[in-house]
Amino acid sequence: MIGTMNLTLKIWRQPHAEAQGGMREYQVSGISEDMSFLEMLDILNEQLQEQGEEPVAFDHDCREGICGSCSLMINGQAHGPEVTTSCQLHMRSFKDGDTITIEPWRSEAFPVVKDLVVNRSAFDRIIQSGGYISANTGSAPEANSVPAPREKAMRAFNVATCIGCGACVAACPNGSASLFLGAKITHLGELPQGQPERYERIVDMVAQHDAEGFGGCTNIGECAAACPKGIPLDVISQLNKDLRTAIKAGR
Amino acid sequence: MAGSTLHDGLTPLNAAPTQTSDDAHGYYTLGEKIVDPVAPTGPIAQRWTTRKFENRLVNPANRRKLNIIIVGTGLAGAAAAATLGEGGYNVKSFCYQDSPRRAHSIAAQGGINAAKNYKEDGDSVFRLFYDTVKGGDYRSRESNVYRLAEVSTNIIDQCVAQGVPFARDYGGLLDNRSFGGVQVSRTFYARGQTGQQLLIGAYQAMERQVAAGTVTQYTRHEMLELIVKDGKARGIIARDLVTGEIETHLADAVVLASGGYGNVFYLSTNAMGSNVTAAWRAHRKGAYMANPCFTQIHPTCIPVSGEHQSKLTLMSESLRNDGRIWVPKRAEDCEKDPRDIPEEDRDYYLERIYPSFGNLVPRDIASRQAKNVCDEGRGVGPMVGDFRRGVYLDFSDAIKRLGEPAIREKYDNLFDMYQRITGENPYEVPMRIYPAVHYVMGGLWVDYHLQSNIPGLFVTGEANFSDHGANRLGASALMQGLADGYFVLPNTIREYLADGPFAPVSEDDGAVVEAREAVRSRVERFLSINGTRSPDSFHKELGHIMWEYCGMERTEPGLRKAIDMIRELKREFWNDLKVLGTADSLNQSLEKAGRVADFIELGELMCVDALNRRESCGGHFRGESQTEDGEALRHDDEFAYVAAWEWGGDEGQPVLHKEDLVYTAIEMKQRSYK
Ligand SMILES: Cc1cc2nc3c(=O)[nH]c(=O)nc-3n(C[C@H](O)[C@H](O)[C@H](O)COP(=O)(O)OP(=O)(O)OC[C@H]3O[C@@H](n4cnc5c(N)ncnc54)[C@H](O)[C@@H]3O)c2cc1C
Ligand code: SF4
Ligand code: FES
Fold this sequence. Notes:
Bound molecules: flavin-adenine dinucleotide, iron/sulfur cluster, FE2/S2 (inorganic) cluster
CATH class of the largest domain in chain A: Mainly Alpha
Largest interface: A-B, 78 and 79 residues
Strand order of the largest sheet of chain A: 2-1-5-3-4
Shape of chain A: elongated
Distance between the termini of chain B: 18 Å
Number of strands of chain B: 22
Order of helices and strands of chain A: EEHEEEEEHHHHHHH
Helix content of chain A: 25-40%
Shape of chain B: globular
Strand content of chain B: 5-15%
CATH superfamily of the largest domain in chain A: Alpha-helical ferredoxin
Strand order of the largest sheet of chain B: 1-22-21-11-19
Largest sheet of chain A: 5 strands, mixed
CATH topology of the largest domain in chain A: Fumarate Reductase Iron-sulfur Protein, Chain B, domain 2
Largest sheet of chain B: 5 strands, mixed
Helix content of chain B: 25-40%
Strand content of chain A: 5-15%
CATH class of the domain at 510-660 in chain B: Mainly Alpha
CATH topology of the domain at 510-660 in chain B: Methane Monooxygenase Hydroxylase, Chain G, domain 1
Oligomer: heterodimer
Structural class of chain A: alpha+beta
Radius of gyration of chain A: 20 Å
Distance between the termini of chain A: 61 Å
CATH architecture of the domain at 510-660 in chain B: Up-down Bundle
Number of domains of chain A: 2
Number of helices of chain A: 8
Number of strands of chain A: 7
């Protein structure tokens, strides 16, 4: 272990959804650069527990960058300074003496539940509105009966890696979820199986997106810069293109 | 087919065992033997088809009146919720995360097996069945495994139809790769994110049913008690993790798809929230826990870097297809830069010991050999205690042979993850890996219908014990989860539900009130002990005990010592726990306390089970039972049974029920991968 760090943390504390929140300052010491950011918070929490102060609540589960639970605004950046999730950010990205501010996602559509935990159920409702291919269990044809061109299948896969974390929304000045939405539209739209519902899907999903209170996209691109999975901005162009086609066809 | 013979399905190939050794004497009582009451008979290839036909149907008009609770939204739970919802049943789905899509199935990397034989390399349903039974070291039920192999092909069809973007070849057809422990290419994959893509498919299918009104989802809810009324499972008590409200949910049947309990070891590749609580609460209500000691320790994980470590990260074993595993021949070389160690000074020990399988030996073998070379002082990486705990997984040959871009296309996300965690670039320096707890073959006992011994309680996915015996082959948990959820449970639960809807149960019923009060008083107790230690500190201590004495190698004195230590830890837990905060809000320490309390009880049972099983099989290696060259030695004469444990009460001893394993289609053999 090469050298350890002492850090000042400024963390958003809010006891519950209706309560007034505010920033609190804490000190942690002996942080090694091999620790993950969340392990650093574990140390803070053990320390708070010892002092009789309630630990800081934050969402996390896999700690491998794949479940999409973790969701921290670190020094004003969604998931912090690297292109990765909060849980895969390691302390070697910081240095001794740093002050780090940690806040929840800020978005009207993601209300705070407690401390750093927000409610992202709006994403589930967007999927419910059409983010699927209707294929009842048992009705599927032989898997290789419909080939899917490799290039398209690869693009579908690349955008299907979205983990539904919401960093794109948190990073967007308009609070738009267009990157998340575009990723799903593109995933399903690139595959032969996704064609029958392609245009109906987009109209319904966009309507739900707007109804949830997410903002409109003005092509700023902060979302793609914050996305830990590197979902490219062109999914939003795809979204707009498909939406125009759908509207022209009078869906 | 090497060594296997097809029989008429009637004559057992092995005799019923009788146990003569009893290391666990004094820790348990022996109960009656059990059998699977719905075990099918007849030629193995026809059993499932026949059973699907025999099981009664539920009239579509009646399905709406039948309520099914499904705890868990991983592959096993989400697939079942989607399918039963499509069938018209009224489903309530529960998960502790904020969205069903975050269940831990999302983290599976390598792939999913299916006997499609697209590569024409001699694969078949029978071969997948054979490999799975053999890989599980003949400790699984053959009828169940055959069914799993049989429906595997339907899974791929279903997933492709849903839009799961599996890897494809240049002609646009599905690609396959080979995966640890088998010699055919039958694994379907989506780069290193197969679990994610399969789960998103199942999640989307389930969300479609939420929109259709057949499935209601309860996120950030934790099941804390099972309701058993007149001997039948009739509902659950769940806590809303945001408001703290203790809710009663009643139903005609309850399905537990709550995943595995590998986190009993504290450090594992499981998600932080993975737990045994749902299963353990059911166990305490009478459901048998089967083979709890059967744990899979995965050979390729990133080694521990220090005390602060909160979890371990898997490096998919698909890496073993292209990476070569080695350590220095001499302990003196272990501190050197691996690139400076010449070829003749390296020991590619798996290739040396197992020339025909080499780096692709099954997980249990690869893990134990890694431990052995490190115990010999030939491990690499930082010192952890007295030893270096790591071996090299080296890609330099593959990079030379195939070029870096080809390796990048296959594994870039894994290599990136490795670099992010360790700060080292695996394209240049060999990866360091070490075994870690990954999966549990043990779980709640179920019959061929996936029903536990409590009528109306079904268990699917990793939470049950059924298909993997003493060791699971790579890429077969995803297969089992989806097989259970999409194809098996929907066809077996209807036989039970055909007698429903059952008489309504009132919220004031004695059984319901008792369950609700038990939850309430437990929550209050956690908050009022007011000792000094955090739930996490107890969890860590339990994990140390389990890893040391119930990990890769188990011995009689070690297990006895562990049981004493766990009992002491349990006393301390209930006297010195400190949980801050309140019961009526989001309180992650309170959640953790409940999970740790259950892990402690489970840990003791795992040690008792391991103590009882004086044989080495699959992932369970008993020091007392090995061959002269240190390979696992099974004792089919004594232990060819499922150990199904009944809860004996807080003050009592667990009761062991044995279910004999009888093979009619495959002959039991000692495994050999040499
Ligand atoms: C890192 C990793 C990689 C893997 N890679 C592979 C692979 O390549 N191939 C393969 O075949 N297998 C792999 N496995 C194994 C496989 O992923 C799992 O065995 C499988 O996904 C388990 O699925 P499940 O549906 O049974 O449970 P899970 O996906 O674990 O889901 C459990 C669900 O239960 C819920 N739950 C649990 N307790 C409660 C409670 N008390 N109340 C309410 N809800 C509860 C959770 O919220 C969750 O929704 C891997 C496992 C890991 C950890
Ligand atoms: S698009 Fe990227 S940032 Fe947005 S939810 Fe998906 S993974 Fe997260
Ligand atoms: S905790 Fe799962 S992505 Fe960070």
